[in-house]
């Protein structure tokens, strides 16, 4: 009997390694490499970035891989009539599946550790890494196509990022109450960082704009339009971004212990912590998915009983898509 568990486990581990590699590689291409191209991370930091991203990817790919593995391994055993021979010898399906189920339990424990501690910590480190690299590559701190409100006293819009400059810039200066006091557009600008003062220098060229009355900024009659300048420097304080990157955490950055503390604090204040509860339940569901997917995949693999690996992969992808669709939907409505 010792030979059979070793045989089943060896087949499962080999298949699991292949499926995890494929799913993780696909997710990296779809998500991580897109972020790398957006932030222009140097090759020297590429290994660190991928290492910090890998735990979060594994929390998604391990359940999918266990489902595909169970389908492929038991589908092949059924197609080759090995299950029929084993049952004729008095060995039940439970005895055959026991090594795979035990492996799924171990992987569920690993996923729980990733979702509870390792994954959130690495996510937070990824965000701070991007900011630290941005001090060396200041263009990475300016995201094109959206209004940037992170800089105190300014709202900035970057139309396009060029090789070492930006183009189609719109800058709004704000007072202490957040009211617009002036706005101007620039055709082009260069970006640099003064590390000793944590200042981002935006040197604008070909500037046109208007000035408003600080006492009555919303009065259109007091707007002096048509102001022009060949060059106009703007100094932006990076202190808020740095502090936010170091201390500001999202719910997805919380460890499970921090998440439980957040839930208790909100409940003590009389607030229903819907978003935090969804985040906590999602992590538990993703951890348990390794075992539940395996328990679904084993009978499905026996039922298909075909040699074609495409059947197992198609079924696993369809079931995984349904599961993660529910997770994504819960995330979309958790704040409501």
Briefly, what is this?
By secondary structure, the protein is an alpha+beta fold. It has helices spanning 3-39, 43-79, 82-88, 93-136, 239-247, 256-268, 274-304, 309-333, and strands at residues 147-148, 154-161, 165-174, 180-194, 199-211, 224-237.
Helix run count: 8
Distance between the termini: 54 Å
Strand numbers in spatial order across the main sheet: 1-2-3-4-5-6
Helical content stands at 55-70%
* Count of DSSP strands: 6
Uncertain parts: none
Mean pLDDT value: 79
- Quaternary structure state of the chains depicted: single chain
Q: What is the ordering of alpha helices and beta strands?
A: HHHHEEEEEEHHHH
Q: Sketch the major β-sheet.
A: 6 strands, antiparallel
Which percent range describes the beta-strand content?
A: 15-25%
Shape type: elongated
Report Rg: 27 Å
Which structural class do you get from the secondary structure elements?
Answer: alpha+beta
């Amino acid at each position: 009997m010792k030979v059979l568990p070793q045989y089943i486990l060896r087949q499962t581990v080999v298949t699991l390694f292949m499926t995890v590699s494929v799913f993780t590689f696909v997710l990296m291409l779809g998500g991580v490499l897109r972020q790398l191209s957006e932030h222009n991370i140097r090759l020297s930091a590429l290994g660190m970035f991928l290492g910090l991203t890998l735990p979060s990817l594994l929390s998604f790919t391990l359940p999918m891989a266990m489902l595909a593995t169970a389908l492929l391994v038991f589908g092949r055993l059924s197609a080759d009539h090995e299950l029929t021979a084993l049952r004729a010898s008095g060995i039940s399906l439970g005895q055959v599946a026991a090594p795979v189920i035990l492996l799924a339990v171990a992987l569920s424990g690993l996923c729980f550790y990733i979702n509870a501690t390792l994954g959130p910590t690495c996510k937070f480190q990824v965000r701070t890494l991007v900011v630290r690299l941005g001090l060396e590559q200041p263009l990475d701190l300016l995201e094109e196509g959206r209004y940037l409100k992170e800089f105190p006293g300014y709202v900035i819009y970057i139309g396009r990022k060029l090789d070492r400059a930006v183009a189609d810039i719109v800058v709004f200066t704000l007072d202490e109450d957040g009211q617009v006091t002036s706005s101007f557009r620039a055709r082009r600008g260069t970006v640099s960082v003064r590390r000793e003062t944590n200042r981002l220098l935006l040197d604008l060229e070909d500037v046109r704009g208007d000035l408003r009355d600080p006492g009555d900024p919303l009065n259109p009659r007091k707007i002096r339009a048509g102001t022009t300048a060949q060059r106009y420097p703007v100094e932006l304080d990076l202190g808020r971004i740095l502090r936010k990157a170091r201390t500001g955490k999202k719910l997805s950055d919380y460890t499970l212990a921090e998440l439980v503390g957040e839930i208790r604090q909100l409940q003590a204040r009389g607030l229903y912590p819907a978003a935090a509860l969804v985040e906590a339940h999602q992590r538990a569901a993703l951890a348990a998915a390794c075992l539940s997917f395996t328990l679904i995949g084993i009978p499905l693999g026996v039922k298909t009983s075909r040699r074609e690996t495409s059947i197992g992969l198609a079924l696993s992808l369809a079931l995984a898509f349904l599961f993660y669709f529910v997770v994504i939907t819960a995330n979309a409505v958790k704040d409501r």
